[in-house]
Amino acid sequence: NLRVLFLALLLLASPLLQVARCQSDAEDHSSLVDDVVGENTDDAVEEDDHDLDMNLSSFPGVETVCVFPKNSAKLVPAGEETELLVGLKNEGKTRVGVMGIRASVHLPYDHKLLVQNLTMLRLNNASIPTSLQATFPYIFAVSQYLQPGAFDLVGYIIYDVEGKPYQSVFYNGTIEVVESDRKSTRLNSSHQGASR
User: Fold this and answer.
1) Is a pLDDT exceeding 50 seen at residue 117?
2) Is a pLDDT exceeding 80 seen at residue 32?
3) Fewest beta carbons within 10 Å, which of 17, 38, 62, 70?
4) What whole-number distance in Å separates Cα of residue 29 and Cα of residue 21?
5) How is 144-187 classified by DSSP, letter by letter?
6) Helices marked H in the chain — which ranges?
7) What angle do CA 48, 165, 19 make, to 5 degrees?
8) Which pLDDT band holds residue 58 (cuts at 50, 70, 90)?
9) Looking at per-residue confidence, does 14 or 132 come out higher?
10) Nearest to 164, CA basis, from 33, 44, 54
């Protein structure tokens, strides 16, 4: 019941947090919402690379949740972008600095068998004060050559607390990879042309 309440609050707060992400640095940052969400960056920060690729433990007081906002069935078209929202709640006694989000696809019967590493989203200046939460969009695409079927998606959010890196699993479950609509449309049109 607590997770459902947390998820409901996360979804309700999501539009407010997205608006805060778009505000410029020149505006007044006295609002707590401004302190919650940073901005993402495509620039690779070399000193953080080793922190984002290590096996890290989670920090007590940090809770995560994941929602597929437009896709509750968790159907992932091969070769197309899929969006999910990652929520992080800081119930600790110090700020949490979010560094990035990463995920990977595995065979469902054995997580040691990696199918694909997905895009690493690096975040810059994303800080969550105590007793607050934030939502981060994560967009990924599985390979267009991946055969349709059930796979396991494992997602991590990487963060630091007082300069030490940690990570928490935000999703560890099954997704259903399906044939892309574009691919099936292309195949249907080529079959129709061949049958004429």
Assistant:
1) yes
2) no
3) 70
4) 12
5) TTPPSEEEEEEEEEEEEETTEEEEEEEEEEEEEEE--HHHHHHH
6) 2-21, 32-36, 46-53, 181-194
7) 75
8) confident
9) 132
10) 54
